[in-house]
Each structure stands twice: as C-alpha cells, then as structure tokens.
Write a structure and sequence with these properties.
By secondary structure, the protein is α/β, with parallel strands linked by helices. The chain contains 9 helices and 13 strands.
Length: 257
C-alpha cells in the first residue's frame, strides 16, 4: 500500500488518510460537501469519491443522514475511503464500492439516492498538467467521460431528487449539456472566486432530476478576503468544528420535490 499521510479536519474531529504522493483531496471537495444540505434520513451517493472526504464531511455535519455510499474506480483510493469511514466511526452508515461509474447500472439499482455529490475529473487526456502519479492522473483526467458521471448521477436519482456538482467555471457549457441530456435540470448556480475581483475558477451546480425551468444564480463565493490574504469568513466557517449549516452560510437546502 502507498505511503500515506494522516490528516485532520474540524480541529481534529475528523481524520483522513490519503496517499502522500498520489491524488489528495483539495478545496473543491470541501466546497462541494458544504454546497447542498441533505434532508433528514437522506441517502447520499458520492461519485468519484477518492478517499471519501466529501462523505466524511457530510456525515460529520448532518447526523440525520441515513446512509452514504461512495463509488470510486481506483482500488487504492477505495481502500482509503473504507478505512476513513471506519476510523471515524461511520462504517455503520457508509459503504464503498470500487467500480467505474460508466457501469453504474451493474453496480446499483435505479433511484438509490436522494442526493448525489459528484466531483468528476476535469481534464481531457492530454490537457492540463499530467502528474507522474498514475493515481493522480486518473483522478484529474477523464478516462471516463463527463457524460458518464452525469448519467450515473441521474440513474441514482428518482424524479425530484438532486445532484450537486463542482466543475471548472470555464467548462460549464459542457456540464450543462451533459445534465440536459440526462434530464438533470440546473436549479442553483454559485461561482467560486479566489478573491473579490478575480475571475471565477469553479462552479457549484445543484440539479433536480426532471425539474422545471428556473435557475437561481447565487451570490459569488470568495475563498480569500483578498489576493494573498486570509480565508474569507465563509470559507473559514467551512473548516470550523461543529457549526450548524445555518450558521455556516454555505449550505443550500435540498429543494422540495
């Protein structure tokens, strides 16, 4: 097994093991986990789960979650996800499947989730910085196309249920096109900027399966107060221990069916 680090979140309340030199979770996972607020007894699925950090954050923030299923294609990362759920006491609620989302119909029955999180690989093969680590390359580059991740999210949801995505802002047209093809209707959009005045680098999108027309464009989210500055107040709250989602300000309640 690859050499690993033992990292923590929320002042040590959550521990997370991940490869020392391979793919490691980023700020994107933290943003995504705080974007959508699961309802009571919600069944969560995390597609492209990596070491399981999105599920860990969701389970920590929302005690009422019924279950969390993480799907990860890389065996090594799936191993870390299982270990992380177990080490944090969530093995009774969490499960990990090692599999390709392109084969989702063989992995899960339809309508298995109330809310899907998805942080898919961003780059086409041959584009972006290629890592020397095979695990990092596979996590960042689309060996499985974006459309397969979006179709997998749609398969997991019943009518009116929701999927939350994070994706590069410059590639939003591709995400919207894939969602449209899968009958996932974008209902909330929030652009993420490094600091006020900077262009948006990421987009958080909440979709409803077979939803009606109407998109709410939310206020921008700033990661830092200013260039080379400290975290913004909202971002700092996302890393704080035990705030409620209403206090955190970053959560978007699940839309009514």
């Amino acid at each position: 097994m690859t050499d690993a680090t033992h990292d923590t979140l929320f002042s040590g309340a959550i521990s997370c093991r991940q490869p020392r030199n391979g793919y490691r979770f980023s700020l994107d996972s933290v943003l995504l986990a705080h974007f959508a607020e699961p309802g009571p007894e919600a069944r969560l699925i995390d597609l492209a789960a990596g070491c399981g950090v999105v599920g860990l954050i969701a389970l920590y923030r929302h005690a009422g979650i019924a279950s969390c299923l993480a799907i990860e294609a890389q065996e090594e990362m799936a191993f870390f996800a299982r270990e992380n759920f177990r080490d944090n006491g969530y093995d009774g609620k969490a499960e990990v499947i090692c599999g390709d989302v392109a084969q989702i119909k063989e992995l899960l029955p339809a309508q298995s989730a109330d809310l899907v999180f998805c942080n898919p690989p961003y780059y086409q093969p041959g584009h972006g910085r290629e890592s020397k680590s095979a695990g990092e390359r596979n996590a960042r580059h689309q060996r499985t196309p974006l459309a397969a991740f979006v179709a997998a999210a749609a398969w997991c949801l019943g009518k009116g249920s929701q999927a939350a995505f994070i994706y590069p802002a410059a590639q939003l047209t591709g995400l919207f096109a894939a969602c449209d093809a899968a009958r996932l209707v974008a209902k909330r959009l929030r652009l993420v900027h490094s600091y006020p005045g900077a262009v948006a680098t990421r987009a958080l999108v909440l979709c409803r399966k077979e939803g009606g027309a109407g998109l709410l464009v939310m206020a921008p989210l700033y990661v830092y107060e200013e260039k080379n500055g400290h975290y913004s107040e909202e971002m700092a709250r996302m890393y704080a221990a035990n705030p409620t989602m209403s206090q955190a300000g970053g959560g978007v309640p699940c839309l009514p069916n």
